[in-house]
Amino acid sequence: MRYLRYAFLVTLGIILISVSLANVQSVELKLMPDALAELLGFNLSTSLPLFLIVLGGVVAGLVIGFMWEWLREHKHRRDATTKKSEVRKLEREVKKLKKKQNEGQDEVLALLDEAS
């Protein structure tokens, strides 16, 4: 399975490198359309290779997706934390009750009761 993953990553790397080398032409990237830029009085633009724009869009999409999922799953993480603290509290209470129950018994029997 590990070799399959490495083969996939190498293939993906070769494809990305070949697409990048095929698209090195510069493209002008503008912040807003010309009509809106004239209305507002400013426009930011830069010239970048096409492959940087495409790969940057993919990376930006991945980052936005990961952040969106992280925010969406917040309530599940909070519930898991609450449940975990409740479980720890109940385990301490059970230990305390077992210890109290086995107070007057023989040590060997008390150890056997605690183990089960």
From TrEMBL:
InterPro entries linked: LapA_dom
Lipopolysaccharide assembly protein A domain residues: 23-94
Coiled coil: 80-107
Source species, domain of life: Bacteria
One Pfam family cited in the UniProt record for this chain: LapA_dom
Keywords, in A-Z order: Cell membrane, Coiled coil, Membrane, Transmembrane, Transmembrane helix
Transmembrane helix is among the record's keywords: yes
Transmembrane region(s): 46-68
The name this protein goes by in its record: LapA family protein
Source organism: Ruegeria haliotis
